[in-house]
Design brief:
about 375 residues, alpha/beta, Aspartate Aminotransferase, domain 1, Aspartate Aminotransferase, domain 2, 2 domains, seven-stranded mixed sheet, 11 strands
């Protein structure tokens, strides 16, 4: 293992965002929609917060877990300090967890900042290839940089069309982005199929595999590509503490890749990371009971939502993760408005699926609210 970073070294290579509070890092980020959070809630005033069921942003309603909450409280007195110690301990724990050197780990203010860094360092004014629709963070940022984004439609099962993606990659392609499970469809590419594809593409461009929802899939549905990153392939795997760990507001994510790639990404970072977020992440990694219980609860309620939608004759994708993707049979703006009248906020439209809606799995009680409202809303 390499030595821990000094304070001076960390100034140029620490994970992003300010240390005082998560709110500060969120406020500093771009206002243009990167996720349904900003796009979904601004068209009309939201219903009273005390009554609103928010099923629009793929948040984990159960988090943070008890160990993370305790860690946040314990770290609060030090929130006025820049925490090099928290940074080094989190890097060390992640490196041990992923069985890599610490030089193969990079932290970010959520995986979103890492996607921005990847676009800045590897795409610039060049070309980015991605399936479509997918998580928009990197495409939005790349286009702001002046890049050309090649969007490849999903196949008929709303999965990544690997053949079409491969044929779209060219000598000008700086990065190929794969979100698995995909957001917003929730569909996955089988592990060995994706592994073979990533290996073949890594000889031509950097492959980024976003595994934000991997901890929330059904067993055996797909596999992590971290073994490719561990082996030094031209592959970066992204993870986040925003989903199963329930730390979306504290903005901690990380990337795993070859040391040379990670070194380039660290040059793009802002100095210092969110102290409370790092301490919460450290604690949450060791809260196996919370993580297991959360995954089970979300899987059970996802199954209930899918069964209810299909029972009404509504088509659904084969969604993994903490959300479903359902064809409501009406323009999504209309479906959203009808759900708002029931005090339920659901996801925005993802073109070209104009009649489809992404609905986050909430708590069991929130899921009950959605299931009670669904027949009325679907019937008009």
């Amino acid at each position: 293992m390499t030595k821990h970073l000094s304070r001076r070294a960390l100034l140029g290579s620490a994970a992003a965002a300010g240390a005082w509070a998560a709110a500060a890092s969120i406020a500093a980020r771009s206002p243009k929609p990167q996720d349904p959070m900003t796009a979904a809630d601004t068209s009309k005033p939201a219903p009273a917060a005390s009554r609103l069921v928010r099923l629009s942003a793929n948040e984990n309603p159960y988090g943070p877990g008890p160990k993370a909450r305790a860690a946040i409280a314990a770290a609060m007195p030090e929130a006025c300090r820049y925490s090099i110690d928290s940074y080094n301990r989190l890097i060390d724990q992640l490196a041990q967890r992923e069985n890599v050197e610490r030089t193969s780990i990079v932290l970010g203010s959520g995986s979103g900042e890492l996607l921005n860094m990847l676009a800045l360092e590897y795409v610039g004014r060049g070309e980015l290839v991605t399936a479509w629709p997918t998580f928009e963070q990197i495409t939005t940022y790349a286009e702001r940089l002046g890049a050309t984004v090649r969007r490849v439609p999903l196949d008929r099962q709303m999965r990544h069309d690997l053949t079409a993606l491969g044929s779209t990659v060219s000598a000008n392609t700086g990065l190929l982005y794969v979100c698995n499970p995909n957001n917003p469809t929730g569909t996955v590419v089988a592990g060995e199929t994706l592994r073979e594809f990533c290996r073949s593409m890594a000889n031509r461009t950097l492959v980024v595999v976003d595994e934000a929802y991997l901890d929330l899939i059904e067993p055996g549905a797909t596999e992590s590509m971290v073994d490719l990153a561990r082996a030094g392939e031209n592959v970066v795997v992204l993870r986040t503490f925003s989903k199963i760990h329930g730390l979306a507001g504290l903005r901690i994510g990380y990337g795993i890749g070859a040391a040379g790639v990670i070194k380039r990404l660290r040059r793009m970072q802002m100095a210092f990371a969110n102290t409370l977020g790092m301490e919460a992440a450290l604690a949450s990694l060791n809260d196996r009971q919370f993580l297991t219980d959360t995954a089970a609860a979300l899987a059970q309620d996802r199954a209930r939502m899918l069964a209810a939608c299909r029972g009404l004759g509504l088509e659904c994708s084969d969604a993994q993760g903490n959300f479903i993707f359902v064809n409501t049979g009406m323009p999504n703006d209309q479906f959203r408005e009808r759900m708002r009248q029931q005090q339920i906020e659901v996801g925005r439209t993802f073109e070209p699926y104009a009649t489809w809606c992404r609905v986050t799995v909430g708590t069991t009680q929130e899921t009950d609210r959605f299931l009670a409202a669904l027949p009325r809303v679907a019937a008009g």
